[in-house]
Amino acid sequence: MASEVSICNRALAMLGANTITSLQDGSTESNVCNAVYADARDAVLRSHPWSCAIQRATLAQLSTKPVWGYDKAYSLPNDPHCLSVLELKEDSQYRVEGRTLVCNTDTATIKFVARITDPGQFDPALVFALASRISAEVAYALTQNRTLSNDMWAMSSTALINASIYDGAEVGSEDINSVVFEVARA
Q1: How far is CA 79 from CA 57, 89, 120, 173, in A?
Q2: Stated pTM of the model
Q3: pLDDT digits over 80-91, tens only?
């Protein structure tokens, strides 16, 4: 089962760097991994509607209406944190503005990408995509090698596309067009 440390060690191995025992073990490698891990995780999760990160929620309406353009405002989920809204069940136009969803419906039920902090819930392809992203982000800091850093970014892009395809193979017919679009966009 994947852990934050095992994902970072996989990223470090891609660079030929020393591995770590924790994200706070005091080494240069752990300091750099600790600095980028959460942001890299969120960026990778946000980049595709990963099956392991999709959740649904009915939103709480806010008492303050939008100043113009929409009639209602709703607070996005914080537990788990909403990284990206995929769909509004009420099939209405909406917009995400900061941590608020604005629309013209009396209720707002969404499908969203949640911040998943337990890497044990990640698909193996997602683990590889995240490790590749981390290796790209820390490559120059650890090696001062621009060519290697650029190679890691290219590998990260490829890993993300491949992981998206694997994940997309497990969707039902209702989502197939959105997955094809997401992969083409990546």
Answers
A1: 10, 20, 18, 29
A2: 0.87
A3: 999 999 999 998
Q: What secondary structure does DSSP assign to 46-94, as a single string?
A: HTTT-GGGEEEEEPEEPSSPPSSS-SEEEEPPBTTBEEEEEEETT---E
Residues 12-24 have a mean pLDDT of 97
Task: Please enumerate in sequence order all residues whose Cβ is within 8 A of that of 83, keeping only pairs 6 or more positions apart, or say none.
Answer: 42, 45, 46, 53, 112, 113, 114, 115
**How far apart are alpha carbons 5 and 117 in whole angstroms?**
13
CA-to-CA separations, 118 to 13, 52, 122, 145, in angstroms, rounded? 22, 11, 8, 32
CA 95 to chain centre: 20
Longest dimension (CA), the chain: 55
Side-chain-side CA neighbours of 49 within 13 Å: the count stands at 22
